[in-house]
Design goal:
Layout: H1 14-20, E1 25-26, E2 49-51, E3 58-60, H2 67-74, H3 76-82, E4 89-100, E5 103-107, E6 116-125, E7 128-134, E8 140-144, E9 150-155, H4 156-159, E10 163-168, E11 173-182, H5 191-197, H6 204-220, H7 242-252, H8 254-263
Antiparallel strand pairs: 1-9, 2-5, 3-4, 4-11, 5-10, 6-9, 6-11, 7-8, 7-10
Length: about 290
Amino acid sequence: MSNRTEGSEQHESPREAAVRALLVTAVTETPRPQRRWRVGTTVGAAVCVIAGAAAGGAITAAASPDPAALEAQSRAAIVIGGTVSSYARVVGTPVGTVGSGAHTVTVGPAPKGADEFVWSVACRSGDGRLSATWTGTRAQPASCPGDRPVTGRVPASEASGRTLSLRAAGGVGWTLTTGWVQSPPLPPASAAQQEATEDGIVTRSEYLAAFDRFQGCMTARGASLGRTPTSSLFVAFGASDVYALDWCTASEFDEVDAAWQGEHPVPAGADSDSWGSQRYDPAADRRYAG
């Protein structure tokens, strides 16, 4: 959980661990959504993906003039761009495929410049269950119709030779989109942020101090947060410069924020969307109020 929403997952940081764990999540075709309350393509080498056993059949635009396949291919770059940050660049030509039943994709070598392999699978027709499984991970299910696309991302260095398997019940039809992206590098956690988390406990004063450093970073990059109230349990903030936001949170706030929110989980029965917006009460939080 986090508390910003975009304006427009050796020792690993939470961001690195999340990417390594394949952060599979349901998203709409918008820049990478997060539960953090923020307010506020280039075509190169061809994507190297080899289609494998497709028991239910799969169609690409190159293989057939089928209208659904043509539409899937025409929207492929938009879909891939929508699964990642707005500042990421699509590398190569994403592939859109339509089909039904079982289908397996084996990933080939990454094109030059790519640092992540990205995929998105969505229900196209029918009524039933659809699941996607990346090598070595649990199946990610969706219900058809109704659910939004299920997406996944994996570092390019770990993608080649691995497989993505789809399973669909009954006559469920799906659209699979695969592609590669390149993102500008983000900084590691600063020494101050590492110091705040090294003892395994983040106090309120450490949380607010990290937020102050984050604000300073944003101001230095010309993307000031303006006046931001800090009285709520989780501080809500916003900025329109998404890259500056991700840069500064990585440097000064992400790990502290993740630890603080982990110390204050959503209680059973509470509204997860509004939890954290309530005024912070140190008397009710004696362990972390220091």
